[in-house]
């Protein structure tokens, strides 16, 4: 019995000694995970600045005079190249007036030639009368010759004035003919068609509204602390919340001064996209980074998510 007790006591002491030894082994400390906090540069790139999409140049085609709209070959939404014929007013009366004015001008030019010949003849006759020998013609005959020359020269002046009048009248009619034909002033999109062919219009009535085709621009403001990163030509990305799309762009201009009340710098960027859904006046979020965000994963409803830009 004493022998068994001694053996059990030795075993317990050995077990305790092993447990103490294991506890005395130092466990290596884990290194702290690197901070995931973004750097100031990354923060500036990922921050989005509020802006608005600017519209391109807009013009309205108006009726140049009272009359009938004879033809209009474009619809709202049509893209039109510069110089394309879009429509015209009724031209029949103007073309008749042009022909009449042309005939009157030709008649005036013929009359001028005739009186110029008469004036030349009268001048030559007077010069012959004034040659020696003196006293061959009476004073009355010389006076009549001088009067005849003066009359012929005055008729030439009247004929020339009439020609200028006829030329001005013809130019005015041709100008009206040119105004009565509607051509696209530049590459554009038809925004609104106000009237239909056959309509009777008053002078100055709008017929078409055109918006210049081409890339849109975005005007936005960024805090002055980011002015060091904003340089002309910098590739950027522009998020349009209304469309749920992020599009590429390029910084085009930057204000040389800071707006004192808001401490913001105003800038303008070129939206490099031909997306027909973009509209002037849309809200934009501008990021000073050229890397487009990956598309969001599908939501629970199975619909694609939108990029977060709010």
The poorly predicted ranges are 1-28, 32-44, 301-310
Q: At CATH's second level, what is the architecture of the largest domain? A: Beta Barrel
Q: What is the terminal separation in angstroms? A: 84 Å
- Mean pLDDT across all amino acids: 81
Q: Give the overall shape, derived from the CA principal axes.
A: elongated
Descriptive account of the structure:
This is CusB-like beta-barrel domain-containing protein. Residues 219-290 form the CusB-like beta-barrel domain. Keywords: Coiled coil. Belongs to the membrane fusion protein (MFP) (TC 8.A.1) family. Pfam families: Beta-barrel_RND_2. The protein folds into three domains: 41-56 and 214-287, Beta Barrel (Elongation Factor Tu (Ef-tu), domain 3); 57-89 and 183-213, Beta Barrel (OB fold (Dihydrolipoamide Acetyltransferase, E2P)), CATH 2.40.50.100; 92-179. The model is unreliable at 1-28, 32-44 and 301-310 (pLDDT under 50). The chain contains four helices and 14 strands. Helix 3 (92-129) packs antiparallel against helix 4. It is 35% helix and 25% strand. It is elongated and about 110 Å long. The chain is of the alpha+beta class. The strands form three sheets. A six-stranded antiparallel beta barrel has the order 1-10-13-12-11-14. The protein has a four-stranded antiparallel beta sheet with strand order 2-9-7-4, with no helix packed on it. Strand 11 and strand 12 (245-254) form a beta hairpin. It has helices at 2-24, 40-46, 92-129, 139-179, and strands at 48-54, 58-62, 67-72, 79-80, 85-89, 181-183, 188-193, 200-201, 206-212, 217-223, 235-240, 245-254, 264-271, 283-287.
